[in-house]
Specification:
Blueprint lengths: L3 H21 L2 E2 L7 E2 L3 H8 L2 H32 L6 H13 L2 H11 L6 H8 L14 H26 L3 H9 L4 H12 L1 H16 L3 H6 L11 H11 L3 H25 L8
Antiparallel strand pairs: 1-2
Helix pairs in contact: 3-7, 3-10, 4-7, 10-13, 12-13
Length: 280
């Protein structure tokens, strides 16, 4: 009885829309004319006749590969630094977490100013060091790295807090015993910290991959998918097909292909984690 409101809400506002998109993906529907059943034609067109989808899929994979490892490594280093009992360390923890709770629109607008070719703070700093300006948002070579840098910056605080919780769950006696055996700082990190952080790292890895594949707001505000389609991701492509070209069936098919991709990658991570994640 007490769970009923949550279950009903989940069914009405989550499961029902998801099921509806599966049905819509089998239709040719522009929201105006009556829908026409086309079976798997949308999927066939998407996977065999749409070169733009392959480019968008590559852009998304590029984003994922750029964001996930960098955010994990940097957030772990920050967590190690923040785990010390230094005066004022709580203030620094809060500062690093501010981007997480800041609106993605505000973050993207801020970075648009920072990336401005003529008067952006980043290029001003590069010029002060005698380096040339970089066309961050107008170059097909630099646009995606610009988005990746911004996304890593925004996600650092969340990952850092998760790692902090994992670090504080490691018993100090393990480090003391290792120090008595003559283990140095690197040996303690390699043989104690990293293995015991395995479950934490696995959780961050799975969540980061899922979130990165679904990136939309940051790229939409920062670059609108440009220049050209250099920063157009799968979710942006779904948005374009559904709400710019009114190809709702095609957009729903793309969404289901994205779901299958994320599901298979997550399943592979679940299988592979048995080799390096230890819960004892």
């Amino acid at each position: 009885m007490f769970l009923a409101p949550n279950i009903i809400g989940f069914l009405l506002f989550s499961m029902l829309p998801v099921g509806a998109t599966l049905v819509i993906s089998l239709l040719n529907w522009d929201l105006i004319r009556d829908p026409e059943f086309v079976g798997l034609q949308n999927y066939t067109t998407l996977l065999t006749e749409d070169p733009l989808f392959r480019e968008v899929l590559f852009n998304t994979a590029y984003f994922v590969v750029g964001v996930v490892p960098a955010s994990i490594v940097i957030s772990l280093l920050l967590a190690l630094a923040m785990n010390n009992g230094l005066r004022g360390i709580s203030l620094f923890r809060a500062i690093f977490f501010i981007p997480v709770i800041t609106s993605s629109v505000a973050v993207a607008m801020l970075w648009r100013w920072l990336y401005n070719t003529d008067y952006g703070l980043i290029n001003v700093g590069l010029n002060a060091m005698g380096l040339p300006y970089i066309p961050w948002l107008t170059s097909t070579d630099w646009a995606m790295p610009a988005v990746i840098i911004m996304a890593v910056w925004k996600s650092l605080g969340y990952n850092m807090v998760i790692y902090l919780a994992g670090l504080q769950g490691i018993s100090p006696t393990l480090y003391e015993a290792a120090a008595l055996d003559g283990a140095g700082g690197w040996a303690r990190f390699r043989d104690i910290t990293l293995p015991l952080l395995g479950p934490t790292t696995f959780f961050i890895l799975v969540i980061s991959v899922i979130n990165s594949f679904q990136v939309f707001d940051l790229t939409f505000i920062l670059t609108q998918g440009g220049p050209g389609i250099a920063t157009t991701t799968i979710v942006m492509y779904i948005y374009d097909q559904g709400f710019r070209y009114f190809q709702m069936g095609y957009a729903a098919a793309i969404a289901w292909v994205l779901f299958i991709i994320i599901f298979l990658i997550t399943l592979a991570q679940m299988q592979y984690q048995k080799r390096w994640v230890h819960y004892d």
